[in-house]
Design goal:
Number of helices: 8
CATH superfamily: NAD(P)-binding Rossmann-like Domain
Largest sheet: 7 strands, parallel
Strand order of the largest sheet: 3-2-1-4-5-6-7
CATH architecture: 3-Layer(aba) Sandwich
Structural class: alpha/beta
Number of strands: 7
Strand content: 15-25%
Distance between the termini: 39 Å
Radius of gyration: 17 Å
């Protein structure tokens, strides 16, 4: 049984990825930061269907906590799966903030950097000894790297950095046959997106009109691609960014 660790697995794309992994026979370690009840619901859904899963608390903005988190992962692997390695890492946890450049404060800039670039960098570093040879890493980026969207400049900049980091991971971890790819979602219905779209229905209409698929994406649309990249059948896909946007702004 492959074991997949998904950060930010209690909601949105992370939740859909955790459930899809379990449906395809993976053991699941998911993290949450401030929504333990939602994380437990995901774990219960997996275990009730006959799978194995555990939820661990993690603040991806707090790099100092990563060694202790790695210890928690080690114990979970031993106690639940009787092993000492997991197979796939999905760096998904994120924070969405809409603010034009002139309104971005140094504090907000640092928060977004810590969550979207520094966090994945040092979390991967901390977990690398536990990641099995021949495993994979999937980093969740954003279509906003390709298509400039007003109000998300620092978010998109750090996601762009994450895509560069993905290629370096693929290069540097090649000796252990660990692949690294990125997935870049377009407009996807998540809790954050729904709040924005509810307040600004004109944005929904604009996104739909500029998407070849003529709809907003669902978390499951992205989850399927993420999980497919962990499949050995796709083992020759490496160092790539795959946009999952239904054909946005083409």
């Amino acid at each position: 049984m492959p074991i997949t660790l998904i950060t930010g697995g209690s909601r949105g794309i992370g939740r859909a990825t955790a459930l899809t992994c379990a449906q395809r026979g993976h053991g699941v370690i998911l993290t949450y930061n401030t929504h333990p009840d939602e994380a437990r619901t995901v774990v219960d859904s997996i275990t009730e269907a006959g799978g194995k899963a555990v939820a661990l608390q993690l603040d991806v903005a707090d790099a100092a906590s990563f060694p202790a988190f790695a210890g928690s992962v080690t114990r979970a692997l031993r106690d639940i799966w009787a092993c000492d390695r997991f197979d796939h890492l999905v760096n998904n946890a994120g924070l969405g903030v809409f603010a034009p450049i002139e309104e971005v404060t140094p504090s907000l800039f640092d928060t977004l950097m810590n969550v979207h670039l520094k966090g994945p960098f040092f979390l991967t570093q901390a977990l690398l000894p536990l990641l099995a040879e021949g495993g994979s890493i999937v980093n969740v980026s954003s279509a906003s790297v390709r298509v400039a969207t007003p109000g998300v400049a620092p978010y998109a900049a750090f996601k762009g950095g994450l895509e560069v980091l993905t290629r370096y991971m693929a290069k540097e971890f090649a000796g252990r046959r660990i692949r690294a790819n990125a997935v870049a979602p377009g407009g996807i219905r998540t809790d954050l997106a729904d709040r924005v779209l509810d307040r600004n229905p004109e944005i929904l209409a604009l996104v739909v009109s500029q998407t070849a698929g003529q709809r907003v994406g669902e978390p499951e649309d992205v989850a399927g691609v993420i999980v497919s990249l962990t499949d050995p059948a796709n083992g020759w896909i490496n160092a790539q960014t795959i946009e999952v946007s239904g054909g946005f702004m083409i």
